[in-house]
Specification:
Nucleotidyltransferase, domain 5, 5-stranded mixed sheet
């Protein structure tokens, strides 16, 4: 009879902009056994780059923190930040630092690509309209600005692809992460040479792309070299991995009608759709999910960093900032912050800046604090409206996840402005949990990459909105000011 200490485990990796997190969970039931974490150096726009070796070093460090359990790990999967561009030469060396999702230097290339092909055709061809966040614009930037480097490229990878390659030696990706590149069609399931031709520089880009794995298809096994570096056992099966948002959907057990608001360095709103989605406005990205359906998503560049920055301006720590925000009335006494501090992705305004309006001589720290939280949340809820506009159903459960979900101010203000109940999952690291779910499904050979038997996902306390119904008024005020900042009708 086996003892609990001998239970087989799965490992889930979340390699985000800021850090690498590792979770070890039991194969049966998904009980959390151990965690590890190691930081990454972070840059902010317009140039935001990281050396991929930083991710590998952080992964080795995080696994070392759970090393006593690694001999029981039977499968591992890697989820990572989407859209980052990793380019590797014929010898396997990384050619230059990876441009990250929040790097906006490729704004001119995004314009060039959209001038070459209209937005409706882009959305129909790959599910999304290219903005500076997407990989295709970063590859075009490389061609235009570093043609020598572009000529040397033998393999193109996303962050999770590169870590999977370091573990297995195989150049592969998954449909979820591939759907965020701008050169792969999630509906047909194939690369688009015609879109890659618009990048320029060379005609063989498709040959440099990874093979796209099916949901639940193993990427390979841990090589001897990777085992020696990480402490994982040689031959351990490696799942296909995916992008961070797709993994979080797995970690929540997300179903049709459920919607997620994620508050991290960036903000995202996404939902499961049984059918593909495209949006010629470029607001909704028609991503694929990690489990065979679709995950339409809206992303904003500015989320929790906005409230941290505003706290610094006001000379407050996070706790004091939250207290101040919750003391102020809904609508912040007429003060509105449009939080485009790093430019913005949705709407597509890479050169925009933040805008505080409605200030009077009676405005105090409480109103300024609350307006920062409300500005971030209003931008994300506008994204949820955009999902509804393209036919996505969001009437099921509403989850709040990410670092901001730990904030009482973000919880309260999000529930109030949305006017609906929020579930705040007890497990903070939903991306790493989702990678564990995928690893378990691959090891067990399940037909679905959804919840393995006995795993309870997405459970947590419920936050109910205030009964005063002020959310619509606050959001309407935000839309008016955001429209002025953008110089267009509010989205």
């Amino acid at each position: 009879m086996s003892t609990p200490s001998a239970e087989p485990l799965v490992a889930g990796v979340d390699s985000s902009t800021q850090s690498t997190k590792v979770e070890l969970r039991t194969l049966t039931g998904g009980r959390l056994v151990a965690t590890g974490r190691a930081p990454h150096p972070v840059m902010s726009g317009p140039r935001s780059e990281q050396d991929p070796q930083v991710w590998w070093t952080a992964l080795v460090d995080a696994l070392g923190q759970v090393g006593d359990h690694l001999d029981r790990v039977v499968a591992v999967a890697v989820a990572a930040q989407q859209h980052g561009l990793v380019v590797v030469d014929t010898s396997g060396e990384v050619i230059r630092p990876a441009k990250l999702w929040n790097d906006t230097e490729s704004a001119p290339q995004a314009r060039r690509l959209r001038e070459a092909l209209d937005d409706e055709t882009w959305a129909r061809s790959c599910g999304s309209v290219p903005v500076p966040s997407f990989s295709v614009t970063k590859l075009a930037w490389l061609v235009d600005n570093e043609p020598g480097a572009a000529h040397r490229v033998a393999r193109v990878m996303l962050p999770h692809d590169w870590l999977t390659w370091r573990l297995t030696g195989r150049h592969v990706t998954d449909r979820g992460d591939a759907s965020g590149t701008g050169w792969w069609d999630p509906v047909s399931g194939g690369y688009r040479p015609d879109l890659l031709a618009l990048v320029g520089g060379r005609g063989d880009w498709v040959e440099a792309m990874p093979r796209v794995l099916e949901p639940g298809e193993p990427a390979g096994v841990v090589t001897a070299a990777a085992a020696g570096a990480t402490g994982l056992s040689e031959g351990t099966v490696v799942g296909p991995g995916t992008g961070d948002n797709m993994a979080a959907a797995l970690g929540l057990g997300l179903g049709p009608g459920d919607v997620v608001v994620s508050l991290g360095t960036s903000g995202t709103v996404y939902a499961v759709s049984p059918t593909p989605v495209s949006d010629h406005r470029g607001l909704v990205a028609g991503f694929a999910s990690a489990d065979g359906v679709w995950l339409p998503l809206v992303c904003t560049l500015n989320a929790t960093r906005v409230t941290d920055t505003a706290a610094a301006w006001l000379g407050l720590d996070r706790a004091a900032m939250e207290r101040m925000a919750l003391e102020a009335p809904p609508g912040s006494g007429g003060v509105v912050l449009v939080p485009y501090l790093e430019g913005e992705r949705t709407p597509d305004l890479p050169g925009a800046r933040g805008w505080w309006s409605g200030l009077t001589t009676s405005t105090g720290p409480a109103e300024l604090s609350r307006s920062a939280f409300e500005g971030v949340v209003c931008g994300l809820l506008a994204g949820m409206d955009a999902l509804v506009d393209v036919g996505v159903h969001v009437s099921g459960r509403m989850f709040l996840i990410g670092g901001g979900a730990r904030s009482e101010a973000y919880r309260r203000i999000t529930a109030d402005l949305a006017g609906r109940e929020l579930v705040v999952p007890e497990d903070d690291e939903t991306v790493a949990t989702g990678a564990c779910v995928q690893a378990a499904a691959v090891h067990l050979g399940l037909d679905s990459v959804g919840s393995p038997p006995g795993w309870e996902l997405g459970a947590g306390p419920v936050v109910r909105p205030a009964p005063d119904g002020e959310g619509r008024r606050v959001r309407a005020a935000y839309r008016r000011v955001a429209g002025l900042v953008a110089g267009v009708e509010p989205f």
